[in-house]
Amino acid sequence: MTRRLATLLLLPLLLAAAAGCTTTDPEAPAPARPGAASRPSPFDDCAALTTAPSKAGPTTAPSKGAAADPLPELTLSCFTGGAPVALRDVRGPAVINLWASWCPPCRKELPAFQRLHERASGRLQVIGVNTRDARDSAQSIGEDFGVRFPMLIDQGEALQRALNRNAIPLTVFVDGQGRVRHVDTSGALDDARLDALVREHLGVAVSA
User: Fold this and answer.
1) How far apart, in Å, are the Cα atoms of 108 and each of 26, 75, 191?
2) pTM of the predicted model, to two decimals?
């Protein structure tokens, strides 16, 4: 009986690790309202998100044939506080990663996004969007994994709904004109795959 109970408890976690994590997962924590941090945030502030990267190349990514849509007309809070950020004011090229601490593939890929943030500094922006998560849990992940890039909060899943997606991790590739060039839902990304997607959809080559 005990072995059977343990199997039933482990099965949802194994399924989540093998694919994306739906944000309707009953095991996910209830959304936490943004508030003052109990300790210093590990993440960068969001003030620079509306300024184009200093070393960004041409503002037009390689043509993909179909017209690209702009980022949704949404305004999200910054994890560190300060003024909320209107997504359409974000200056690309940018890579936006939606994640939560309770999502195993999200945790697995976060270090790759931090390394991209460091390697591509000045050429593109790496932005996190923490969704349906407890603030303390998100902060602990940032501290433990050394995540420093700017972090927005979307506890109402507004960005996912606007993109017609219901699972995370979710990564959005935005060109220099604020147009969505690709939405990736393939699961946890590693350095090689992330670099290839940046090169393909944003025209930015990132050295290892």
Assistant:
1) 21, 27, 11
2) 0.82
